[in-house]
């Protein structure tokens, strides 16, 4: 698959995976209707907007890295040819999953709809199970020592303070 195919595949997967998890399901749970909240909630709504916008930006960045750097998609059916370790992936191995969770929690704060908090917890548990049970073993098999070095150096869920630089990457 070339970059054009990777871009189309990534766009489709973007709509199907994070579009459903961070868009359709929260809409289904809330109708995207905000609750009437007291004035002291305003800073939390602002924080929610920040989380939502940051989550969307990180998600777009992560998908673009898969196309440009990995020459593939985040979808397991059309994986990358190259291990994606640039951009935000130099700080944390799972920025895409963190971005989806930020978007869900951002919606919870913006809308004042706390039903999205336990939903985010279920999504987080599903992400961790998928990463541990499928993604990490698959990447270890596909990329071998290169992935193991990356995995040892870059945390899965809590970003590093400084970007990781692979050996020979100056």
Textual characterization of the structure:
This protein starts with a helix and ends in a 17-residue tail after the last helix. It contains five helices and no strands. Helix content is 64%, strand content 0%. The longest helix has 38 residues, at 116-153. The protein has a single domain, classed as Up-down Bundle (Four Helix Bundle (Hemerythrin (Met), subunit A)), CATH 1.20.120. It has 170 residues and is mostly helical.
Summing up helix and strand content along with how strands pair, one would put the structural category as mainly alpha
Rg for CA atoms: 17 Å
Quaternary form: single chain
Total strand count, please?
0
Would you state the CATH class? Mainly Alpha
The percent range for strand residues is under 5%
Which second-level CATH architecture applies? Up-down Bundle
Mean pLDDT: 94
